[in-house]
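Reopening this one. Same input as before:
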Amino acid sequence: MGLRVLITNLNLWPPSGTVLYVRDLALELQRQGHTPSVLSSTAGGIADELRASGIEVTSSLRKGRPAPDIIHGHQYAPTLAALDRWRTVPAVHLCHDHTSPYDRTPIHANIRLHLGVSRVCVQRLLADGVPKTEVRLLPNFVDTARFTPRGALPERPRRALVFSNYASEESHLPAVREACRKAGLELDVVGVGVGRIEAAPERLLGQYDLVFAKAKAAMEAMAVGTAVILCDFSGVGPMVTTAEFDRLRPLNFGFEALREPLRPEPLLREIARYDAADAARVRDRLRSSAGLVTAVEGLLAIYREAIDEERESRPAAAVWRPLRERFVLQLYWRWESQPTVRRDWIKAIPGVRPLLRRGRRVLGGGAGPTH
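Same output, byte for byte:
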């Protein structure tokens, strides 16, 4: 019997690891005979894609809506808002970011299991007070039907891509550009930081021989068959090889792997490790072990475990203050739906920026930075 699954996320644009996770999860749940819906900001191309597929995307918490069977929560504020609205519905929560205030752990008695996509996300869940018995590592996935293999890589790389929303002149882009110049590589950049948002990277990645990325973006490039060097704003990691694949997978090919400083020298060392044959083996390994279909089947087993679990009488360790937070969340979603030009105009009004910072603190549970 199909499940009604409510997935929460603060927004659905621009494309990011969490946003694309929501899209891929919702579409695959639908393909497997379930009824997903998404509670989020309704603005942007990903929301449009989901609605075009017949998946409801809503920012409404009004009464009268049918209750889901399970809540799959991302991010603090929308997860707790959904739990406050449907107080008898069990939930699972998935942490994607170990530092963002928006990803602060929601503590609630109805959340049966907390999941982390990487070891550092699991550590955050434990540090935020979740009992060890209620925490699991759940590695990320790739839609291998969307990201199809490219042709064979050349013996020597010619074209490289920085694939990151954080790439800018203030982050890792200068070091990567200099390394590529010295290595004789033509370099392109895609991401929010350079004003080039690519809604369909599956049509782009196969044009490159070498990609600099981390986390889900790196996995998508691997699935296509490009060579991948882990790199982002926090540092430089290794070239992903078959020898290191098993070590890097529980790290989500992310933050923990980025141990080298953002300088051309470590990047040049990794570029020199380019091996077209090994990149093909990494592609096959990734596609066989991190596919979307199998991952969603595993999530469905977790959902049913949460639904079937006998209700426990345990008080929540934190109180969701619904009136204020719901109000701020609805304002945030209205803000997200505004065109960028209008938002810039509003932010120029005296006193607006401090109000925005206060709202972000509320959405992050009152903790962490407000940038």
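So the earlier flakiness isn't reproducible anymore. For the record, Residues 159-289 form a domain with the Rossmann fold fold (CATH 3.40.50.2000).
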